[in-house]
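Protein modeling request. Please complete all fields; requests missing the sequence field cannot be processed.
Requester role: graduate student
Desired output: 3D structure, token encoding
Chains: 1
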Amino acid sequence: MRPLTDRERRTLRLGGLGLLVYLLLFFGLQAWKHGERRRAQYDTLRREAAAWNNRLEVHQTRLTATRDLMELLRLDPAQLSRTTLVAQASANLQQAARMGGVQLTSIRETPARTAGPDLSSIQLEAMGPAVGVLRFLQSLDRLGVPLITDSLQLAPLQPGAGQLKLNLTLIIPDFDNWKPTDGRPDA
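Delivered output (187 residues):
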């Protein structure tokens, strides 16, 4: 093989340099596009993660509020059983009456109307000092059983004696019948 002339060497150098520049531009552009795609995917994932964190924060807030309500009302939905709910409500009412210094004269449990969203209703009559009756009424929301006051009637037992007679009708809701009709939970 013969030795290369200066001109041939210069041509080879320029050709090699041109090929190097072409390859750098070609593969550099490919790498740049690949990096842009990865960055776009990362940004999409970051936005999705932020959206999920916001949803999680909303649910955490709801969970905290639900726990606070369960503690305040002394209500544990996992412990509620349809079969024992009415008996539990009746026992809790009797205990609350005793704690308030109120004497229950009668307590009747009646089955719910067939078309209504109620599990049962409780009608009770009680008498006692005005302070005790009011204390009993205040304790109704912390009995550990969901109750709805349907009717309330107060009357003095004897004029000027400070004694009250209480007629109260409470409804125990049937939460199975209160589910949303569109099949999705409340938001």
